[in-house]
Amino acid sequence: MPILHSIIHRIDKGDGETPARLVPAEAPLAASTALDDLVSGLNDAYHGKAKNWGRFADDEPAAFPAALSAFLDGERDFPSLTRALAEQIVPLVDDHLPVGGHLLVVDHRQGEARYLILALLHHRDGFGIDDALGVVPARQLNLAQMTLAARLDVNQWQNGSASHPYLSWTRDRGGKKLSEAFAEALGAREQRDAGEETRTLLKAFSDFVENEDLPEEASREKTDALVDYASDQAKLGEPITLEDLSELVDEERPKAFYEHIRNSDYGLNPEIPPDKRTLNQFRRFTGRAAGVSISFDSHLLGAAVEYDEDGDRLIIKKVPNGLRDQLKQRQGD
């Protein structure tokens, strides 16, 4: 993961009466193993955060994308670009956050792709062990507390991708106003609701499996293939490509799931942003006892399947077509 440019600016905020102020860096960061490890950890932490996905607003050009374009064209240096960005973030800290932090901005490559990632980092107090084996206080960056962060796929933006949501930014619970203000500072416009689109994809998959009337083992294998692929994409910060997913779901008929989505008009784009929390809920409940075998996707619990804890019963609201036909035939005998 070669780092092309990186810098840290500090945003100080004391008590509630003192306005936040920017303490800009004088120069970019020097290359080091510690910096490489920090950026790697930052990317991992960012992929696990709830995010909005979108693009720069074309109809309302903002200062940041214009300045970034000038930087990429060699007309502006990295410290100047990031300082201007930090100045836009200072009011957000003032209005929405109790403390300041260190704004880390990194321009780096992953394979052939180029990304710009930025995050306002905070410290937490901890403990360490010194050379004399004594306990000493130690401060460390808290990557789990990432209220303001964003990631841009530079190549996709420059190539003018029409479907790829090349920009994402954090969306903390209860911080809607902060997220909206952050998007405005970036010049971003939300394009996709990752949670909603992931839920729609999983609904399409459940419909596909039901229509195919697959055996339990085959259904489980396809579910695992979908969740594994989508989870890997979420970890990489990349979208789910429906054609690639379709090939994984059914290798013998690689277009079947893709055509099911297109023909059923679920309104999904060819590429959708994955939502990790939604994916984690999409697993299967299975059980076998006394000649009865039951298996269903976990997201159906409370919807198509209900559990009556008092009576220790499962209530299935929609009987699979094949099973319904068998039951009707048996009743007719």
TrEMBL record:
InterPro entries listed in its UniProt record: Nucleoid_associated_NdpA (IPR007358)
Family in the record: Belongs to the YejK family.
Source taxon at top rank: Bacteria
Keywords of the record: Cytoplasm
Localisation: Cytoplasm, Nucleoid
Main subcellular location of this protein, as a coarse class: cytoplasm
Membrane-spanning segments: none
Pfam families assigned: NA37
Protein name as catalogued: Nucleoid-associated protein
